[in-house]
Amino acid sequence: MKSVYFDNAATTAPRPEVVEAMHAVLSEQFGNPSSTHTFGRSSKALIEGARKEIAKTLSCKPSEIIFTSGGTEADNCIIRSCVRDLGVRRIITSKIEHHAVLHAVDSMSEEYGVEVEYVALDSYGSVDYSSLESLLGLAGAKKTLVTLMHVNNEIGNLLDLQKVGRICETYGAYFHSDTVQSIGHYYLDLAQLPVHFLTAAAHKFHGPKGVGFMYIRSDCRVRSFIVGGAQERGLRAGTESIHDIVGLESAFKLAYRHLDSERSYVLSLKTAFVQGVKEHIPTAHFNGYSADLEKSTYTLVNLRIPIIGDKATMLLFHLDLHGIACSQGSACQSGSNKGSHVLNEIVTEEEKWMPSLRFSFSIFNTLEEVEYTIKVLKNFVKEV
Amino acid sequence: MKSVYFDNAATTAPRPEVVEAMHAVLSEQFGNPSSTHTFGRSSKALIEGARKEIAKTLSCKPSEIIFTSGGTEADNCIIRSCVRDLGVRRIITSKIEHHAVLHAVDSMSEEYGVEVEYVALDSYGSVDYSSLESLLGLAGAKKTLVTLMHVNNEIGNLLDLQKVGRICETYGAYFHSDTVQSIGHYYLDLAQLPVHFLTAAAHKFHGPKGVGFMYIRSDCRVRSFIVGGAQERGLRAGTESIHDIVGLESAFKLAYRHLDSERSYVLSLKTAFVQGVKEHIPTAHFNGYSADLEKSTYTLVNLRIPIIGDKATMLLFHLDLHGIACSQGSACQSGSNKGSHVLNEIVTEEEKWMPSLRFSFSIFNTLEEVEYTIKVLKNFVKEV
To answer: Is A335 on the interface with B (CB under 8 A)?
Structure first.
């Protein structure tokens, strides 16, 4: 049977080079980076090398990169720090952020009574920039954090980071962007991008799970979320996972070395997929801007398919039986029974009966896989 | 040059079987465990298999084992949960706990005004159980958490978990033990041990860094520390690091399969080390109970050496030059300039000028390494 993995927004396969780099560290380098002896120093050097590599590519200082156990921890840390350490009393976000952001924001509201506002979205799920400006205008003296993701993980809509950053600057607000779906896929130049905080997860760009990083601009004096030892200059306690950090570095380096050619390739798969759907499953709709190659990431599409009842329930299972892995709602919660909170915001009541599927692509996919998937999908929709 | 790694309490080398198990996962299994398709389900099965394996060995329920990014996160999570979710308003701990516990306790005092008490220690750094009882007797109606580590990471003193657990039971207090230095080295039978929370880190028992677990007794209804997706039954958000969890499982399984024989072997190294010191460096003192094979873990010794001035400063460097890695103070903070907070509690003012060294052993060490180290140490102490 064929095996087609079209769930790359949920997680990606590590590149073989990443796996080998990690294997070498696991086999040969085990010192605790906090130890001052030879074993410790060589582990420390690996971590600092990774930090410099990332900082160079993103045009920031190495000290602004803090390793974490992943994107979720990074989002939690930043949002909590803003409230606890930077005096933030108001958070502006959107209802279609990742749960790592939304639930962290909810905690701040519960624990600290922080005021929470949600920007308006257009009918495709993109942020209404004028709504953001009006909300910021109403902030008064309350220190505000704006947290809006760069690439939406379910529908792929892109945020204009530069524009949001400038607006935040004008109103003196902090700006955090969950860039978990964009780091490794888009160039980010922090020398000119007005953003205070970013978050990344290696497993979204062919690195290992369980490791990520935060960018914390040097003028933001925050404290640690996880406390204990003095690792990461006191900003993140816990013995560093060297093999995972080296895996992250390797994946990051390769992603940016090949970004242009790989983007073209993955975009060609998405383009073919969109074309295929339009041609062979004309009754399908695209959620958000996911069919718009300008307003949406090149890595995914999100489809709404007009089938009903048992057939709708069977859709994902049918694809799985045909060896096709994709996601219904967000992959990060596809095991749960709740509908996607993102689609709930943008799909009308009349359309909610239609099942939605996210197909997300990577360099390890092929055009043949796209064609095969369109065929399986078409036949399923056609059958009575 | 020789290369002797005697800093196994800071971190251990992963077993080759662990490295291979992780390599296989990294090469072949990358699905997101939250995804419902084939790729996701097989990753999920790996995690649930690891959970069952650990639960079986510790005689608890699989649902009581929650994977984390390590011991520090686990300690933070448990201590915060006790205060936020279980109504704890008073914490009893000791001044020689790991910083992951002490700093988490400090945060609870700052953020929630939780009252903090420290048990008295005897002059060797062991907990005075009657002091614990009197403190518990004074708690009044305030819900109390007792957090005391099983094996002290610097001096190796053992806590009587059974005894402390019974005392806590009598006074209706919650009991957390940081078992980071003991899981994988000691049998723990949770079917009869009266403890609510334990914490573990794989890299302390020849597993990978960046992964650990918490034991949370099923009657303790706590909430997540890191919030976001519904992973780990809602108790720890963030995509699970499958390769690290499989590495943890492999290390855990092997540690318990070979525990008796490996304990004998490591104990023979410690015994030889203690004998060697007594014979060849008779002016040296042992910190805590570390020379007492009953009251201290078999994995480490902590020495105080009567040398002064520049020579004292050079000690660790001298050993490193001879290829011997050990730790001055706690390895987890040996990169920092502060003295060990543990030794500060038990060493008298008159003894504080003497440098202290921790030597910690593992199955990968040899008797020859012990003899070599004693010789190097002896010659250094002897030289003018």
So the answer is: yes
Domain end marker among B208, B231, B257: B257
Show which of residues 90-129 on chain B sit within 8 Å of chain A, judged by CB atoms: 98-101, 103-104, 106-107, 111
pLDDT digits over A327-355, tens only? 986 434 444 446 789 988 988 877 877 88
Beta strands in A217-365 (DSSP E): 285-286, 300-304, 324-325, 356-360
Give the pLDDT score at A329: 62
Separation of alpha carbons B249 and B240, rounded Å? 14
CA–CA separation, B212 and B200 (whole Å): 5
Residues 186-225 of B with CB under 8 A from A: 201, 203, 208-211
Nearest chain B residue to A319 by CA distance is B37
Is residue A25 pLDDT above 70, yes or no?
yes
d(CA B242, CA A21): 17
The residues of A that are catalytic are 332
CA-based angle B59:B148:B262, to the nearest 5? 55
Q: Residue B37: which domain range?
A: 16-257
CA atoms within 13 A on the CB side of A52: 6
| Residue A139: per-residue pLDDT | 65
Q: Is B32 on the interface with A (CB under 8 A)?
A: yes
B238 DSSP 8-state letter: S
Q: How far is B107 from chain A (nearest CA, A)?
A: 8
Chain A hits for B36, CB-CB cut-off 8 Å, are 316, 320, 328, 334-335
**Cβ–Cβ < 8 Å for A214, A198:** yes
CA B165 to chain centre: 18
pLDDT at A338: 63
Q: Which residue of A26, A39, A233, A363 is the best one to mutate when testing the B interface, meaning the one whose CB has the most B CBs within 10 A? A: A26
- If asked whether residues B200 and B303 sit together in one domain, one would say no
A279 and A249 together in one domain: no
pTM of the model: 0.96
Asked if B160 and B186 sit in the same domain, the reply is yes
Counted domains in chain B: 2
CATH number of the domain within which A371 lies: 3.90.1150.10
Q: What's the confidence (pLDDT) of residue A138?
A: 85
Mean pLDDT by 10 residues, chain B (384 residues): 93 98 97 93 97 98 98 97 96 97 97 96 96 90 94 97 97 98 98 98 98 98 93 94 98 98 98 97 94 95 88 86 85 55 86 88 98 96 75
pLDDT score of A376: 96
Using the 3D structure, point to which of A229, A257, A285 is the last residue of a domain: A257
Nearest by CB to residue B34, choosing from A227, A243, A332, is A332
- Residues A146 and A270 occupy one common structural domain: no
* A71 and A211 both lie in a single domain: yes
